Amino acid sequence: MDFGIAGKNALVCGASKGLGRGCADALAAEGVNVTLVARGAEALETAAEEIRQKTGVKVTAVACDITTADGRAQALAACPQPDILINNAGGPPPGDFRNWNRDDWIAAIDANMLTPIELIKATVDGMMARRFGRIVNITSSAVKAPIDALGLSNGARAGLTGFVAGVARKTVASNVTINNLLPGAFETDRLMKNIANTAASAGKRPEEAADARRRGIPAQRFGNAAEFGAVCAFLCSVHAGYMTGQNVLLDGGNYPGTF
Ligand code: NAD
Fold first, then answer.
1. How many whole angstroms separate alpha carbon 49 and alpha carbon 7?
2. Which is deepest, 73, 81, 161, 219, by most CB within 10 Å?
3. CB–CB of 5/238 below 8 Å?
4. Residue with CA nearest ligand 1 atom 13
């Protein structure tokens, strides 16, 4: 299937590694020029060069913290009129809500709710005027089924989800869709670090803990960034113009409900 987006421009946040990288790879494979944003310049330059070599699309790398106003200004200066926006940043740390103060909550809300909202605000009117736009927010399965230790994530991402549910209905008539992708367990640096930390506090080996986690998922495995990116690229395709305001769960069957 031709996704019909070759030559479009995408701003992909959190793109040097993991799920954001998977999205950047899949979009570039469809011929989309990508502006990659991540904090660490080294991993970012490596990712940019790999994508250039493999696909031949125009790749721009912007090393900045997308959760700051300055970082967002740098990203938007490099890609002022994106046709596609992938919102993504690191998730908040786990913990017990009794230990979180106002600053912890503000940091989580800044990163996982207000940053995507600011980027939507900065780009959506241009997309609507040009009559094409695709916005995908990488959120979490925790939006649908809260994870006990991830209260900061459950809360901040639910706020974004509520906002998107409203605005996505206002943009679709202009062929601008806004959807959320909800990852379950994907084999990325972040997941493996989280598993290693939990294993260490339980006195287990990381591989033992990872295997137990895999066995608990109906698919019996973790997802990979390429399959995440493929779904993202489809949501960004010309074929997905009738789909907006949706929360698409990618979790190997882990959520047990009928809907
Ligand atoms: P990862 O750590 O493997 O990669 C994160 C990428 O984002 C890196 O490129 C990093 O440089 C970049 N990044 C992080 N914070 C940034 C910032 N402030 N500004 C710019 N770039 C930034 O993480 P991942 O596993 O790909 O996770 C991506 C998102 O998905 C996170 O919010 C995470 O909480 C969420 N998530 C992941 C999983 C999973 O299983 N991997 C599950 C649920 C939710």
1. 18
2. 161
3. yes
4. 14
Nearest atom in ligand 1 to the alpha carbon of residue 184 is 42
The pTM of the full predicted model, rounded to 2 decimals, is 0.98
pLDDT at 205 over 90: yes
State the distance from the centre of ligand 1 to the C-alpha of 147, rounded, in angstroms. 17
For residue 99, what are its two tokens?
């230990």
| Interval 208-228 mean pLDDT | 97
Task: Tell which atom from ligand 1 comes closest to the C-alpha of 20.
Answer: 26
Q: Please, which pLDDT band fits residue 240 given cuts at 50, 70 and 90?
A: very high
Which residue among 12, 17, 147 is best mutated to probe the pocket of ligand 1, counting the most ligand atoms within 8 A of its Cβ? 17
Q: Report yes or no: 25 and 82 within 8 Å, Cβ to Cβ.
A: no
CA 138, CA 247: separation in Å to the nearest integer?
10
Phi, psi (rounded to 5 degrees) for 48: -60, -45
The dihedrals phi and psi of 145, each to the nearest 5 degrees, come to -135, 95
Tens of pLDDT along 109-153?
Answer: 999 999 999 999 999 999 999 999 999 999 999 999 999 999 999
Q: What is the pLDDT of residue 198?
A: 87
Q: What is the DSSP string of 30-63?
A: TT-EEEEEES-HHHHHHHHHHHHHHH---EEEEE
Percentage of the residues of the chain whose pLDDT score is greater than 90: 98
129 C-alpha to ligand 1 centroid (Å): 31
Q: Is the pLDDT of residue 188 over 90?
A: yes
Nearest to 190 by CA among 48, 41, 38: 38
